[in-house]
């Protein structure tokens, strides 16, 4: 027998079914926004992670690492140069990225760069080349009252008109320094070559000619030697080549150089820290400079070294690295038989131990152009020689060293201030050195 469901119960079942369907619909529709919100949160988290990693935001700020031997000079420098023991604080948002620091230096040089007024000097070299340098007189008296000239060698393919050079020269002038800035042979676009030769990685001829000119013109002046990047290699090699080159030199400062081209060439072909990409960009710039002097370097109207006649101009067009350009073109300016010989002879590595004046070697730990393995060279030298100090801040990139609070950098960089501060300290040390030595000897005698 079949029993019929009462009408009231049937009605209740229908209501329950409808309520269940409504709840299911609500649950299904509420789950979809939750899924989309989760995807959005994951995407935001991923982007934030990439930003933090790329901008290196978790990296701390700290005073630079100092490697030196304990000596009277080192103790005097630590007292007289607050920047050596003070935190270097880069701009908060991007300043801890060595790539951004390097890119900003490479693209715009400096912020609101001044325009110091200088006179261009011309020197005829024995091989017919015309070397040029710009001379800037001091804007105030030096803190010691002495006549001090900074002889400055810029980075690869750079000259006195580059913004980072102008900024540094202006600051040095205001601190009482005369400045002489070498224009690398072939680097100035409005100065034609007068012989089939350009600047190379370690040729000191033009820098030496500038220094000799300054010594002759200003017999009473003392010299502070400054080199940036490739210029650091040139000035250190110049001082070490002949001890006579160190006469009247108070000190030398080298910033962001790599010390050994032979050891650097392998690292410069690696993709870590985008080093290979930087290599390509620098090679492309070098090609443009060489090709702008194509008529003088490769034309038939001038006498050229036999080795340069064998250079294949077509290889220059296809070169994608500085090593290829050096091997096909640059080494032949000086008759080197191989790239290995060129890099060995042109690097300052073999001359560093012959420098006896106070020597400050500055690098940045996050410099994408200088591999960390190369920093063992200044470290080892600083541990052995009392006249050498190696300064290694965590940040700064390659010739960046920008300072600032959050986003916008200041016109003057940490590097500019450090070089002038160190130079001031050395000038003061030269005046008080006999007194400091007597005091230390008296103290040791009491012990």
The total strand number stands at: 9
Instruction: Profile the largest sheet.
Output: 9 strands, mixed
Give the H and E element order: HEHHHEEEHEHEHEHHHHHHHEHEH
Please report which band the strand proportion falls in: under 5%, 5-15%, 15-25%, 25-35%, 35-45% or over 45%: 5-15%
Please tell me what the overall shape is: globular
Radius of gyration: 31 Å
Q: What is the mean predicted local confidence, pLDDT?
A: 87
Helix content: 40-55%
State the separation between the terminal residues, measured CA to CA.
122 Å
Number of helices: 16
| Order of strands across the main sheet | 1-9-8-7-6-4-5-3-2
- Structural class of the helices, strands and pairings? alpha/beta
**Low-confidence runs (pLDDT<50, min 5 residues)?**
438-447
Describe, in short, the structure shown.
This protein is an alpha/beta fold. Helix content is 46%, strand content 12%. The protein is built from 16 helices and 9 strands.
How would you describe this protein?
- It is built from 16 helices and 9 strands.
- The N and C termini lie far apart (122 Å).
- It has a 9-stranded mixed beta sheet with strand order 1-9-8-7-6-4-5-3-2, sandwiched between helices.
- The longest helix is centred in the N-terminal third of the chain and has 48 residues.
- It is globular, with a radius of gyration of 31 Å.
- α5 links the parallel β4 and β5.
- It is an alpha/beta fold.
Essential attributes:
16 helices, alpha/beta, single chain, 447 residues, disordered C terminus, globular
């Amino acid at each position: 027998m079949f029993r019929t469901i009462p009408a009231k119960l049937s009605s209740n079942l229908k209501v329950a079914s409808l309520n269940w369907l409504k709840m299911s619909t609500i649950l299904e529709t509420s789950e979809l926004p939750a899924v989309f919100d989760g995807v959005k949160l994951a995407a935001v988290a991923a982007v934030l992670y990439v930003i933090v990693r790329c901008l290196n935001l978790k990296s701390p700020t700290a005073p630079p690492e100092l490697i030196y031997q304990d000596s009277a000079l080192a103790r005097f420098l630590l007292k007289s140069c607050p920047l050596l023991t003070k935190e270097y604080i880069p701009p908060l948002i991007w300043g801890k990225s060595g790539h951004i620091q390097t890119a900003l230096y490479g693209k715009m040089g400096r912020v609101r760069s001044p325009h110091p007024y200088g006179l261009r000097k011309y020197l005829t070299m024995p091989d017919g080349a015309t070397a040029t340098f710009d001379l800037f007189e001091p804007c105030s008296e030096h803190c010691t009252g002495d006549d001090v000239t900074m002889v400055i060698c810029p980075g690869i393919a750079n000259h006195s008109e580059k913004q980072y050079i102008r900024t540094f020269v202006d600051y040095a002038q205001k601190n009482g320094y005369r400045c002489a800035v070498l224009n690398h042979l072939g680097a100035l676009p409005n100065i034609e070559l007068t012989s089939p030769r350009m600047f190379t990685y370690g040729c000191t001829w033009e820098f030496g000619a500038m220094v000799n000119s300054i010594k002759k013109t200003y017999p009473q002046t003392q010299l502070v030697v400054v080199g940036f990047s490739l210029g650091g290699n040139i000035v250190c090699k110049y001082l070490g080549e002949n001890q006579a080159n160190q006469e009247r030199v108070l000190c030398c400062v080298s910033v962001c150089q790599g010390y050994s081209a032979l050891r650097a060439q392998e690292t410069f072909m690696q993709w870590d820290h985008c080093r290979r990409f930087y290599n390509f960009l620098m090679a492309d710039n070098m090609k443009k400079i060489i090709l702008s002097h194509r008529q003088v370097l490769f034309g038939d109207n001038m006498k050229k070294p036999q080795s340069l006649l064998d250079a294949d101009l077509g290889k220059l067009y296809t070169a994608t690295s500085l090593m290829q350009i050096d091997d096909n073109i640059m080494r032949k300016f000086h008759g080197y038989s191989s790239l290995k010989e060129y890099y060995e002879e042109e690097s300052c590595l073999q001359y560093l131990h012959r420098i006896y004046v106070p020597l400050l070697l500055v690098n940045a730990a996050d410099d994408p152009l200088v591999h960390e393995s190369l920093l063992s060279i200044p470290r080892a030298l600083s541990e052995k020689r009392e006249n050498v100090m190696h300064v290694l801040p965590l940040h700064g990139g390659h010739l960046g060293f920008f300072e600032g609070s959050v986003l916008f950098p200041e016109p003057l960089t940490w590097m500019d201030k450090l070089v002038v501060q160190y130079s001031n300290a050395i000038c003061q040390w030269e005046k008080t050195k006999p007194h400091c030595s007597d005091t230390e000897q008296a103290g040791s005698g009491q012990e």
